Amino acid sequence: MNDDIERVLYSQADIAEACGRLGKQLTADYQDKVPVVISVLSGAVFFTTDVLRQMEVYTQIDFIDVSSYNGGTHSSGEVRLVTDISQDVSGRDVLIIEDIVDTGRTLKFIIDLLKDRHAKSVKVCTLLDKPAGRVLEAKADYVGFVVPDEFVVGYGLDYKGEYRNLPYVGVLKPKIYVNK
Ligand code: 5GP
Ligand code: MG
Ligand code: MG
User: Fold this and answer.
1) How many A from CA of 180 to the centre of ligand 1?
2) Separation of CA 61 and ligand 3 centre (Å)
3) Which atom of ligand 1 is nearest to the CA of 150?
4) Model-level pTM?
């Protein structure tokens, strides 16, 4: 295990199992649709590729990058569009793939954007849900794990750009970010 990790919350095997479970649900729910899957950069990329390989439905993949975190451990409160998707979602079924829903600000921003553009339906699949952090109402339709109110990294989630490629999700030792 990486020395900066206090404990592992979800192992590679736990994550694989969650991707299988969510993939089955998504396969059933999108059977007769061709959804535009929008992966939220950069954190959701690992989860997106794994869960989509378990979703046996024709899909189109797109990416969006929004920023609210400034790379630290607490949300700045303001969400800004960094890189937009490249396709027209009007009249389309859209599935957003997120790494974690914390305050809900990022998700609300993206959902509002897609609704303004007249998406036919907008649903959300997130690896992690941290309900204790919620500031705005934002609900994920498909959830891998409900996480405690701690700062986690790995499997796409970063602290200042690091730890994304850990194969598991773990709690970062507070000494790494306290007083920094
Ligand atoms: P929001 O607060 O807008 O719901 O979440 C915005 C973003 O904050 C998430 O997509 C994620 O990138 C980041 N975030 C929230 N909680 C955590 C956490 O525990 N660990 C890491 N690494 N990022 C987090
Ligand atoms: Mg994210
Ligand atoms: Mg981040």
Assistant:
1) 18
2) 21
3) 19
4) 0.95
